[in-house]
Amino acid sequence: MTQPSSGDLWAESWRPWINAAFAPQKLWQSINPGWTFGNITINEQNSSAPQTEQRILSQESYGRQIGKLLDAVAVLVERQPDHAENPAFAAIADLAARIDRIKHEAAADRIEGLRHDLALLRASDRPEDQAAFAASIEALRALLREH
Asked: How far apart are CA 73 and CA 69, in angstroms?
């Protein structure tokens, strides 16, 4: 009988622990017959045409679809003579205002992120980062000249 080498002995002594700690006991997974978008699952139970819905969402998100509908409803609400007194119409106006505020806050956050990214590029010693910084600053200056 041959003695295991020290490498084999090491592997053999750790194998039970490694198998127990890291390897899944069952190597199977159930297949979801639909698809998931964020926390929304689209399948045959909740959509008559899940493939069509998936294609639509690949082009137009739920947020974009609802946003367009909200914009149209807000215009229609403003045209109603009792829009100031009707609680349902006031709720639409309030929702539209809250969404606009969130969009503006998100825009300000993105600008702050852009400032941080530009500072990072500017401080870099890499020539490609310096070139990206210069190109970005020039693009911003062109945009500001337009306005």
From this structure: 6
Q: 3-class DSSP state for residue 41?
A: strand
Contact 47, 53 (CB under 8 A): yes
Output b/e per residue, 116-129; b: 16+ Cβ within 10 A.
eeeeebeeeeeeee
70 with 96: CB under 8 angstroms?
yes
Tokens of residue 25, six digits: 């006991």
Query: What is the pTM for the complete model shown?
Result: 0.57
Report the amino acid identity of residue 115. R
Instruction: Write out the H or E segment, with its range, that includes residue 35.
Output: strand 35-37
Six-digit token string for 74: 């807000």
Residue 56: predicted pLDDT: 86
Q: Contact 48/56 with Cβ under 8 angstroms?
A: no
- Give the residue from 110, 111, 131, 113 showing the smallest Cα distance to 122: 131
Q: Are 132 and 121 in contact (CB under 8 A)?
A: yes
